Structures are given as C-alpha cells and as structure tokens.
Amino acid sequence: MSTVPLPIDPNRPSAARIYDALLGGNHNFAADRAVAARAAEILPEIPQIARANRDFLRRAVRYAAGRGIRQFLDLGSGIPTENNVHEVARAAAPGARVVYVDRDPSAVLYSRHVLGDDEQTAVIESDLRDPAAVLATSPARDLLDLNRPIGILMVAVLHFLPDGPDLDAALDGYLEAAAPGSLLAISHAIPSSDPEPTDRLAELYSRTGTPLVVRDADRVARLFDGWTLVEPGLVPGPQWRPDDGPVTGAERFLTLAGVGER
Ligand SMILES: C[S@@+](CC[C@H](N)C(=O)[O-])C[C@H]1O[C@@H](n2cnc3c(N)ncnc32)[C@H](O)[C@@H]1O
What we know:
The protein is α/β, with parallel strands linked by helices. Helix content is 39%, strand content 15%.
C-alpha cells in the first residue's frame, strides 16, 4: 500500500507547536511537548517568557492601530491563540486587514481553520526571507495597500533565522516595501548573563527544524536599520509601553522588543 506524504510530521518538533505548548495551547504533538518540557527544565521562566511575548505583540498592535495603521503583515505568525493580531487590531480599528505568514504547514493549517471565511484576513505559507514572493501572493496584493502605512510584525521569529545575506536582503525588502509612517515590531531572544541556559536552549532547538540564534542587544538593534525606534526604544519586552505602569525585573525575560517607524 502506498502512503501519501503529509506536510506535517508529528514526530519532528516545530518551533510553532513548541511555542503553542509553552503557551498551554492544544495544537501540538508529544514530540513538541517533550521539547517544551525540556526547555522549561533548562529555563523555568520560559512559559512566562512566551506569555510576555504575546503581551508585547498585543501592545504593539494596539499601539499601531492607535497610530492609524489599518493593515498588518504578521511574519512568523505561529499558531493562533488568544489575542491574535486581527482581533487586537479590530478592537481598535474595525475592518483592519491582516496577512499572516508562516513557513510551518501546521501553523498555516490551524490559522486557516481559525480564520475560516474572514475575507479581511489571509494566511500564506511562505518563508519570510523572500519578501518579493510574500508580497506578490494574491492575498497580500488583495489585502495590503503598500502605498499606505502598514504594521510589519516580526515577533519572536528572527531568532530562528541565522545571520547572512538572506536575512539582510529580507529586512531591506520589507523596509523598501513599507510606505512612510509604517511601523516594524520586533521581539527577539537575547543571551542570559550566565550563557549556560541559552547555550543549552540553542542546543535543544538545534535538534528541531528551527535552530535558535540568540543575538546581543547591538545585533538586535541593527535589525531595525533604516527604521527609527519609537519610545521607549529597544527594551526588555515587558517594559515596552506596559499597560500598568513601570515594570521591574524584566531583564530575566531574556527578550528585547521595540517598534520602529519608517
Ligand atoms: C515562536 S513562534 C512566534 C509566533 C508569533 N509571532 C508570536 O510571537 O506569538 C515563531 C514562528 O515563526 C515561524 N518561522 C520561523 N522561521 C520562519 C521563516 N523563515 N519564515 C516564516 N515563518 C517562520 C515558525 O514556524 C513559528 O511559527
């Protein structure tokens, strides 16, 4: 009997599903949960870090909507959970349009299921490192007007991409495509002061399809080349425009986050 190859291999952990497991979601397999559990042994704060990252995403989208942005390109969008970009954006701006992009077929499948027949959103299965291809897809052409400001989201994704000309060209491509007034939100893993936990996490993820590349603050800042960081600049994720006043101890979240303006 022949078998039909499936795009999703439940035995191969994926960054999207490991993250879903860390967030307490149920769109993941045993192999993903095993990596999530091992990651939490290495770095017990990691589920909190994942939740804090989602909170940054929510605040960044709300900020962008408050600045009048009505269209979003969510690159490395992952598996839908609470406070997805279209929900947060529409709470502030009904009718906001969102194009979700992920290279993981399971993230794309779950996203399509959640979005159903919502005509103001679309999900593209693509590698974000090819901006020309992403922006040439018919959903992107139909939903996004690149003559108007756009919110580009690269949240908890660039630390899965190694340095090199591909990444530089991709960042340049999105910068060039973005109209003045556009915003770019990035959150990114940084090394712990004792390098051991992040080294061990990188080692763990190297056994998945998505090796982890932690970058120091200078290198994360350079991801914003061509953009001007809005206040408060590049800061530990929970300190970026917190809902409830100043946050202390956010360095332990090992994440830097910022929003740049074109
Ligand atoms: C940790 S999840 C983050 C999800 C979401 N952005 C968030 O912050 O909640 C990272 C996602 O990036 C996706 N990803 C990694 N490399 C990618 C690439 N080169 N192109 C598109 N998606 C990518 C993974 O498949 C995964 O779904």
